[in-house]
Specification:
Length: 155
């Protein structure tokens, strides 16, 4: 009966190491993409709920509190809605900001960071964007003020 030689055993271990390294890289990329998809979904859901709240119960204000997006009746009142697009995790947490948009996405419009956005009783506002920033990656979820239509732009 023939046994495996040391060279054959090392070749099998090397092949398994290459397969494991390839899988770990692809799983890491999948986790990153999932995090961003979850964040975009949380922002979209928050915007829908905030506009529904404004249409149902009157004007509200959207603001940033740390890395959370909050909706309230005013600055000094408790939040009605809160969304944390990036769940707490280890290490670096991406940032969230509100930016005013003076032109539609893709038209080279200027952006200005703002502290809050007012939604009137019909759920209308200025044109603005929720900006999600992770250093190398930046995504803006644009909200059309009159219609509430949401669109995305990546950099």
């Amino acid at each position: 009966m023939r046994a495996f030689t040391l060279i054959e055993a090392l070749a099998v271990v090397a092949i398994l190491a290459i397969v494991a390294a390839t899988l770990s890289v692809s799983l890491g990329e999948t986790a990153h993409a999932t995090t961003w998809q979850r964040a975009r979904s949380a922002v979209r859901q928050f915007d829908r709920l905030a506009r529904l709240e404004a249409r149902t119960n009157g004007p509200i204000q959207i603001a940033i509190d740390g890395n959370s997006i909050v909706a309230s009746r005013g600055r000094d009142l408790p939040p009605l809605l809160r969304s944390d697009p990036f769940a707490p995790g280890n290490g670096h947490r991406p940032s969230v900001a509100l930016v005013a948009v003076d032109r539609p996405p893709g038209m080279g419009g200027g952006l200005t960071v703002i502290s809050c956005v007012q939604l009137d009783g019909a759920g209308r506002s200025i044109d603005f964007a929720y900006q999600l920033n992770d250093g190398p990656e930046l995504i803006r979820v644009h909200a059309a003020g009159l219609t509430g239509h949401l669109s995305e732009e990546s950099e």
